[in-house]
Write a structure and sequence with these properties.
Chains A, B: Keywords: Aminotransferase, Transferase. Two copies of one chain form a homodimer. Chain A has 427 residues and is α/β, with parallel strands linked by helices. Chain A has helices spanning 9-28, 42-47, 79-89, 103-117, 141-149, 166-175, 198-205, 238-244, 274-287, 293-303, 306-335, 361-370, 402-426; strands at residues 33-35, 96-98, 132-137, 153-160, 163-164, 179-184, 215-219, 251-256, 268-271, 341-343, 352-356, 373-375, 392-395. Chain A folds into two domains: 4-44 and 310-426, Aspartate Aminotransferase, domain 1 (Alpha-Beta Complex); 61-304, Aspartate Aminotransferase, domain 2. The longest helix of chain A has 30 residues, at 306-335.
Chain lengths: 427, 427
């Protein structure tokens, strides 16, 4: 097969005409498909409906420490919920606080608290002239939205298959005291599906931050979200690595059951050192009388333990895997050898990252939209929504049905081809 | 009956001896009673256990606007939850956002947001030299804890049976641009059980704040928490009063179902003007992907509508009323005519306020504790935990059983007598 780069101008023009004709056919179909959001499919939600059966009016509502889960109190989570979330993250219960239904809110509140109250006694960030966060790119748009919302300057750090460019991370963190944080999705990263290598984790743990109030924001959202039973990524436990490195306080880890049970009604947790948690508890005492312990208890009754979570994740994988594989299959079939795109083949998580020729991502997303397929906005996985090379597209295969996904992927490859031809013709 | 003030020193000394003997008897009983927290009793929680039956694995999980309540999205609440909470507060659904399980968290977040982002475009409070809040006293300790946590100066405003001293409120709000807020529990106030009169509400609505970012924090926690079916307090709707007065943006109203269903697992809401809500939604979009809509939906299925809430509140009242009446009965029987204390007789809410002779509250609380009865700390209902006259005690009759409460109240009156005799003997 001839790559697009090898084609003559005439061949490209011909290709363009035939692509345009195919594109018009799709436009006529009046499609309404969505590959934009990392939402669980209806089938996945249906699969966990039995969580609604574990508590009823006859249930005992008492946690293992004797407290009534229906009443006020137990601000930082019932003990068995701490244990379960600790097991999920691969850390100890004493390192964990359990919050409400979303880890994003914990992250927001953590940044917000640092703005108004500093970090373990440091100057509140809102009283500092300049605050910076490192942002491995491409990354999770909602992380970047938080730092942007608080006026924090964001610095792009390139991602590799092993994690962020650690030379650059060390350079910034160890020398610039205005660098206060870094956003990480260490396992099955959003949107590439990369897993931080052991070396990367160890280098994170061994950072020597110039700022005493620097923290790693370790968003372990996909910690149990494997696609393949026999090829599960292993990630070192950042909490114990930081302890070993004599840096126990430099990391906050976050996780939730948002894509294990119901996306909107799970439980979320944070893990960190005693010093950090004690500081956070001081604000928590003021911010809340306690999060929803009934829902924590419901999750405990449903899963019993980590094995319960793993069993459920296997069922999720059985629904998700065919979708990831179908997208990969169509991309391979339609684009391999054309020299106009590469994509990741994640073993877990919720996303595939597609890289177009430079300067084509916006055009692909626009064309797809005009043919009825909504993709995550080009630029979204970058701070300020700006992809400097305009070449990254996040594909979210989870929500559509297989049949919808097939159509969406076919429209997508067509749009990639069309945008690429147009780009090459410009040159 | 002779009041303590009328007694001679000799009589007082004699009284003291006999009180001490009785006190020692109680101490021997090794009591462990608690009248400190405004927690629903176990019986009240048992009464709403059937909320756990309304959803099960067979339930339809679709809100009236067609969205799946199990998945992400619908950040500011499902429409029927907005409607229900609006009906509860006596306002319109369009004025309401529904959040997580606790209104305290909404209040904290509202102050926190004002610190970092200002109010509808005003300068963030963290960049201002001085921020003040007015605090009607006695009031709710957790309100004061929020403002103290953010370094906001608190100014005591005396409460009357009709609400805060409005002359003083107007004086401050209309003249001092550093006054940015006031904490209010307008109905069955914490801890006195007073209800703001129509005139008070209208004067609030007609404030002409010197600060454009002044807001009334209207914590309507006890909006449906009547004790008597036939003597229910009416409170004017602050939202529409503010609209009528041409001041639509000066109030945030808060409410929750924390003491309607489960104290720790209810739903909470805020009501305000479109302008305020639009500004808040901007932060919400960053802070959360959405609160727990399954629990919102559960509450809708359980109550159906405001009548469902009212029916449930009647059952709560049937449990609470005898407790309030028993406390009042014992206080009356033991203290009437002695001139050493007065107390409120609320028609709703969760508290009774007892006023001792000046300078006796701390002593009463200490004595009660040493006899095994925990009361809310003296000073707690005041900013910075300081009751300038040391005379206010908050009594929370809800949690103990009737039998426990009888004993606790008997210990309490004994401690009041003893502390008063000691005080009078000092003079």
């Amino acid at each position: 097969m001839k790559s697009y780069q090898e084609m003559s101008k005439e061949e490209l023009l011909q290709e363009k005409e035939s692509l345009k004709a195919a594109y018009k056919e799709y436009q006529k179909m009046d499609l309404s498909l969505n590959m934009a959001r990392g939402k669980p499919a209806v089938e996945q939600l249906d699969m966990v409906m039995d969580i609604l059966d574990v508590l009823d009016s006859k249930s005992e509502m008492v946690a293992e420490n004797g407290i009534d889960v229906r009443n006020y109190g137990e601000m930082d989570g019932i003990p068995e919920a701490k244990k379960l979330m600790a097991d999920m993250m691969g850390t100890k219960a004493e390192n964990v606080l359990v919050f409400g239904n979303a880890s994003l809110t914990i992250m927001y509140d953590t940044v917000s608290r640092s703005m108004t109250h500093g970090v373990c006694g440091s100057t509140p960030w809102c009283h500092l002239d300049k605050i910076k966060f490192l942002c491995p790119v491409p990354g999770y748009d909602r992380h970047f939205a938080i730092t942007e919302h608080f006026g924090i300057e964001m610095i792009n750090i390139p991602m590799t298959e092993d994690g962020p460019d650690m030379d650059m991370v060390e350079q910034y963190v160890n020398n610039d005291p205005s660098v206060k944080g870094i956003w990480c999705v260490p396992k099955y990263s959003n949107p590439q599906g990369y897993v931080y290598s052991d070396e990367t984790v160890k280098r994170f743990a061994a950072l020597k931050p110039a700022a005493e109030d620097f923290r790693i924001f370790w968003d372990n959202s996909y910690v149990v979200h494997h696609l393949y039973e026999d090829r599960q990524a292993e990630l070192l436990d950042i909490i114990s690595e930081c302890e070993k490195a004599g840096n126990p306080d430099i990391v906050y880890e976050f996780a939730s059951t948002s894509k294990v049970t119901f996306a909107g009604a799970g439980i979320a947790a944070m893990a960190s050192s005693k010093k950090n948690l004690d500081f956070i508890r001081k604000s928590m005492t003021i911010q809340t009388i306690g999060y929803d312990k009934v829902n924590q208890y419901r999750h405990i009754k449903y899963f019993k333990d980590l094995d319960g979570i793993k069993a459920k994740m296997k069922q999720h994988a059985d629904i998700l895997r065919p979708k990831f594989e179908m997208v990969d299959e169509i991309l391979t079939k339609e684009l391999e050898g054309l020299g106009i795109g590469t994509w990741t083949k994640p073993l877990g998580g919720y996303f595939i990252t597609f890289e177009t020729l430079e300067g084509c991502a916006t055009s692909v997303v626009k064309k797809a939209k005009e043919a009825g397929v909504v993709l995550t906005g080009a630029g979204a996985p970058f701070p300020y929504g700006t992809d400097p090379r305009d070449f990254v597209i996040r594909i979210a295969p989870s929500y559509p049905t297989l049949e919808e996904l097939r159509q969406a992927a076919e429209v997508f490859v067509l749009c990639v081809k069309l945008a690429s031809v147009e780009k090459l013709l410009e040159a």
